[in-house]
Amino acid sequence: MILEDKRTALTAQLATLTADAETYLTREDFDPAHEPYVEIKREADKTRKTLAEIDEVITARQFHRPAASPPTSPDPGPDIVRQLVTEYPGYGRSKTYNIPDLRRALLKVSSLTDIPEYRYSGYSAPAASAPLLAAGTTINVDRGQTRISWITAPGGAPLAEVVAEGAQKPEAAITWTEATINLEVLAHWAKLSRQLYNVGGAYDFIVQELLRGVDDKMEALAAAAVAGASGTSTVAGDTMLQSIRLGVGKCAGAGFPADTVILNPADYADVDIDVMTTAGGAPESRSTFWGLNVIPAGAIPAGTAYVMKAKTALVTFRYPGVDLFMTDSDISGAGATAASDFRANILTALAETTAKSALVQPAAVCKCVPTPAFAEASARK
Predict the structure, then answer these.
(1) Residue 3 to residues 141, 142, 273, 312, 339: CA-CA distances in angstroms?
(2) Alpha-carbon distance 98 to 244, whole Å?
(3) Strands 305-308 and 365-368
């Protein structure tokens, strides 16, 4: 839940408490020491205080940190950046903030027991780099969940039957299958000096690369989930392009109109050149094969492609956003060489999320493997 949502909920709660208090005031037997009235008044005061603290944080989030300007306040100690994190949806750009000023505001909301739920940072987020995740379905799960179970019906929707008037209706032929996966933590970190932090663009660049690295890993694992799944159908044509077209027909016959094909980047280039040569047209910045969205993925073996109805077949379960944590209280080195990063003016930025992709409907995917001659030619490149 973001701060604005929390504020809306607390505002509604305060309105209810105020109305309850006014009801007590109109009673003939009103007693200001009556315990229910005292409890309502106490809860209302607590809610007003929390709203004031949240308003202060929202105001602090509007502070802009110029790329090349130094911090505007003295170094407050080893926790200068105690927990600056952000909810990043995987696309677009975030606002930028003055980190020391924001930190002071955050420390004032220590009375909010659920403060770890909120995410802040001072960076410009990278553009989305995960087209396969965008093509599939993403389900945000609650933080703290580590195991996901779901039920699916392999083979897709059953066909209804024509039934005569007064006759018994037939039962749909559905076989339910339950599956379970464990979510995985994806994370990495990088260090930078406080001097480098103050260099225009350096901090933003490091953070962007960390966040993009998390997205890229999620994309690669999603492609690997497709390539490693069992239960998919298989077709083979004389060429990769022919095989992809056969895969479209295979998916359609199973009741899943395909919309996406993923393949190795080298195969994508070869097929793109073949299409251009055959059609006699100029190269395009974004080609489609048989109307499919084409996604190159290094996790797909050369000589193989997967045609699928992505939204139905591929699901990524994940915590909302990518978290960014920063501290200057880390230790560099080990043993006799261990040294305080705080005394060396070194910051550590850590990006992480928790996620797992799964192929939940194998019938919506067709593996396309051209003839051995084509596969051998692709492998030699």
Answers:
(1) 19, 17, 50, 33, 37
(2) 51
(3) antiparallel
Name the CA radius of gyration of the chain, rounded.
Answer: 28
Place of tokens 């109805």: 309
Can you read off the two tokens belonging to residue 59? Answer: 């105001």
The Cα 64–Cα 166 span in angstroms is: 72
Q: Name which of 226, 380, 230, 379 is nearest 309 in CA terms.
A: 226
- The DSSP string of 198-228 is TSTTHHHHHHHHHHHHHHHHHHHHHHHHHHT
Q: Which helix (H) or strand (E) holds 367?
A: strand 365-368
pLDDT digits (tens, 9 = 90+) for 260-309: 999 999 998 888 887 777 766 655 656 677 788 899 999 999 999 999 99
Q: Residue range 35-63: average pLDDT?
A: 75
Q: Which of 374, 372, 365, 219 lies closest to 292, judged by CA?
A: 365
* Predicted structure pTM score: 0.61
Helix (H, G, I), strand (E, B) or coil at 110: coil
Measure the CA–CA gap between 26 and 34, rounded to whole angstroms: 14
Question: Measuring CA to CA, how many Å separate 202 from each of 25, 102, 289, 309?
Answer: 60, 20, 40, 41
Q: Which of 143, 123, 140 is nearest to 81 (CA)?
A: 123
CATH of domain 228-315+361-379: 3.30.2320.10
The tens digit of pLDDT for each residue in 47-56 reads 888 877 777 7
Look up residue 166 and give its amino acid: G
Kindly provide the residue ranges of all beta strands, DSSP E only, lying in 194-345, ordered along the sequence. Answer: 233-235, 260-263, 293-296, 305-308, 314-318, 323-327, 331-332, 339-340
23-50 residues labelled b (16+ CB within 10 A) or e (exposed)? ebeeeeeeeeeeeebeebbebbeebeeb
- Domains of the chain: which residue ranges? 228-315+361-379
Contact 124, 96 (CB under 8 A): yes
Tokens of 5: 């949502």
Nearest in space to 206 (alpha carbons), one of 218, 217, 194: 194
State how beta strands 260-263 and 293-296 pair. Answer: parallel
- Helix/strand/coil percentages in the chain, nearest 5: 40, 20, 45
Contacts of residue 355, Cβ cutoff 8 Å, sequence gap at least 6: 183, 184, 186, 218, 221, 316, 317, 318, 319
